[in-house]
Structure to design on (362 residues):
């Protein structure tokens, strides 16, 4: 039983929440604490944490899921990078066990976000150059190792656009990203069944009033898109424009192995990256993922001017709905007891994943 100010789908109440692995009851009434109780965060783009990269395979997924759970993330997608096929297979084989059985003290890994290798060489960002045209047989074989829930591709490359309906038929959310495509390419991909955009503004053709680009397609037509709200990848003014344009814009961390670590050199797939303060960069100086955690993303959204309920929805309800996970991302009877408890400074003082209390970092 927890008590405090509770965010429910119908609004705030003061009271208590009774749960085991699932939520049993939410009871309005006096609260024994002044804590704020939100749905656990749902992060659909996570490469690493605690010096560990998903592409390492093995137990990397468990390390990453445990680290992010301590910051309020109760479910996530392990996210790959462009790499040789055998390296991608190794990463998925490592994640398969974590997906099948949640390790103690860890966030629930809901599946895989396959970011690459079906990207445009012109918009790789921090991705290695091992891109290939999309192939249905390759996706099917990877999907058989571990469930691919989200797949990022550049629709303008080769015959990638033609595969979107077939990928969507497998239950995969196809996202447009790392793309040099035009506005028209973006609209065509949405019409073909693409569902969203990967780290909006980053790794895609930008907005110009005579060449709207992929950013223009997203702002004009998207229902969903992910964005990295670390206030490094996207300037506050651009974030505000996206918030006004895309109804269910949601936040992701794009967190790397440098998350939670001191400044220094780390791995991002086969790339070497360097953490300096709040940024992770390649040796060239280009941004290369982030060190963001979802609790910090919440505080950043609030700093940007969002009310707390709206900020919470963009880190829990919207990403859960995007995946069709209707028993997560909300506090209602019957839903999984994925809960984050915050103090007045919006810092986690309690996290519960499917009812399990997570030991927080000191």
């Amino acid at each position: 039983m927890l008590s405090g100010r509770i965010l429910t789908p119908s609004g705030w109440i003061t009271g208590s929440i009774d749960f085991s692995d699932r939520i049993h009851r939410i009871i309005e009434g006096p609260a024994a604490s002044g804590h704020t109780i939100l749905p656990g965060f749902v992060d659909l783009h996570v490469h690493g944490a605690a010096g560990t990269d998903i592409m390492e395979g093995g137990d990397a997924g468990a390390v990453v899921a445990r680290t992010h759970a301590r910051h309020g993330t109760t479910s996530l997608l392990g996210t790959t990078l462009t790499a040789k096929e055998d390296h991608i297979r190794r990463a998925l084989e490592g994640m398969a066990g974590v997906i099948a059985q949640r390790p103690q003290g860890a966030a629930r890994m809901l599946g895989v976000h396959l970011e690459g290798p079906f990207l445009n060489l012109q918009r790789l960002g921090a991705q290695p150059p091992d891109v290939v045209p999309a192939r249905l047989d390759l996706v099917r074989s990877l999907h058989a190792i571990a469930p691919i829930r989200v797949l990022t591709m550049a629709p303008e490359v080769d015959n990638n656009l033609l595969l979107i309906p077939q990928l969507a038929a497998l239950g995969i959310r196809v996202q447009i990203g790392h793309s040099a495509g035009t506005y028209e390419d973006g609209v065509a991909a949405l019409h073909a069944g693409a569902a969203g955009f990967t780290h909006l503004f980053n790794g895609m053709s930008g907005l110009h009033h005579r060449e709207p680009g992929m950013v223009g397609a997203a702002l004009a037509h998207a229902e969903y898109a992910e964005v990295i709200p670390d206030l490094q990848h996207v300037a506050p003014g651009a974030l505000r424009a996206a918030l006004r344009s895309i109804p269910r814009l949601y936040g992701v961390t794009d967190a790397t192995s440098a998350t939670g670590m001191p400044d220094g050199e780390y791995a991002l797939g086969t790339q070497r990256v360097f953490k300096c303060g709040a940024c992770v960069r390649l040796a060239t100086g280009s941004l290369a993922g982030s060190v963001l955690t979802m609790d910090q993303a919440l505080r950043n959204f609030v700093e940007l001017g969002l009310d707390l309920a709206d900020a919470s929805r963009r880190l829990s309800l919207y990403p859960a709905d995007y995946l069709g996970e209707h028993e997560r991302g909300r506090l209602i009877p019957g839903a999984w007891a994925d809960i984050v408890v915050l103090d007045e400074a919006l810092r986690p003082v309690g996290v519960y994943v499917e009812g399990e209390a997570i030991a927080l970092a000191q």
